[in-house]
Specification:
The chain is of the alpha+beta class and 271 residues long. It is 24% helix and 36% strand. The chain has an 11-stranded antiparallel sheet, with helices on one face. A two-stranded antiparallel sheet has the order 9-10. The longest helix has 18 residues, at 2-19.
């Protein structure tokens, strides 16, 4: 019986140590693991807000390989279609929806009910957002003031995975004016440079994809006013992401049935 108690004490002690991590340690490890998630498959669920408060729900099965970049998407909602993007072979997105099509990643047909083009699949976009905002705040994952921006608010279970719940709150968030500079030809250029949602730029200014130098636009000062993220305690990946702006919830992205280090074959990236 004494051995049993000792065994339980040791086990519980190690369990306690595994949970006792700071927000800086969790954030650092999550950023590292997002960069290493280079061969993955998952079921992607998106809830996105559009003009007039319209909400669009999407469901897509994704296969993602980072190098060379290959993305296969089997969309179930809001419309059914299969998509393939291999930029080293073709700059267009191959689409199979009854008939075969080859479309620019920003084509209106592809972007009608989604905020982001296909090449933003995976975790690199979210990684870039976090890194950009930390730098803008003059913070690192080891900064003493990190907790004023990124907070560990508890734990939860999501998709049968134990997760930490982090909240990232930007108290300086606002809509600001931005003058388009030379070399910036599209909202996609601006979104990448400023690390803000491209769709929000289009919505705030009632414009399409193109912009011109000297044009003054309304843009968010950062990607989100508040971000809630669930970090998987095993993989350290952000499998649930909820972004809120000055209006309310803007985007929710969920990564379910996530598989890492997938050994893809050529057949995995064919239509």
């Amino acid at each position: 019986m004494r051995r049993l108690f000792l065994s339980l004490a040791v086990t519980l002690g190690f369990a306690g140590l595994s949970q006792a991590q700071t927000v800086g340690e969790i954030t650092k490890k999550a950023l590292e693991q997002m960069g290493k998630a280079t061969s993955i498959s998952y079921d992607f669920y998106a809830t996105e807000r559009f003009s007039g408060g319209k909400i669009v729900n999407s469901e897509v099965k994704i296969k993602y390989q980072a190098s060379p970049l290959k993305i296969y998407a089997d969309a179930k909602k809001p419309t059914s279609a299969r998509l393939l993007y291999i930029p080293s072979e073709n700059s267009k997105v191959q689409v199979k929806k009854g008939i075969g099509l080859k479309l620019d990643p920003y084509n209106k047909m592809l972007m009608a009910d989604q905020h982001h083009p296909i090449y933003k699949a995976g975790f690199n976009t979210f990684k870039s957002i976090i890194e950009f905002n930390l730098k803008a705040k003059g913070l690192t994952t080891s900064s003493a003031d990190l907790g004023k921006f990124v907070k560990l608010v508890g734990s939860t279970t999501y998709d049968n995975q134990a997760c930490w719940v982090l909240e990232i709150i930007d108290n300086d968030y606002k809509i600001v004016s931005y003058t388009v500079k030379a070399g910036e030809d599209s909202v996609w250029d601006l979104g990448k440079k400023l690390c803000v949602p491209e769709y929000r730029i289009k919505e705030l200014n009632d414009i399409g994809n193109s912009v011109t130098p000297g044009q003054v636009l309304k843009v968010p000062s950062s990607y989100a006013k508040k971000t809630t993220v669930y970090i998987d305690k095993d993989s350290y990946l952000p499998i649930y992401q909820k972004m809120e702006d000055n209006v309310g919830v803007y985007e929710i992205y969920e990564f379910k049935n996530l598989k890492l280090n997938v050994k893809f074959t050529a057949e995995d990236f064919t239509l």
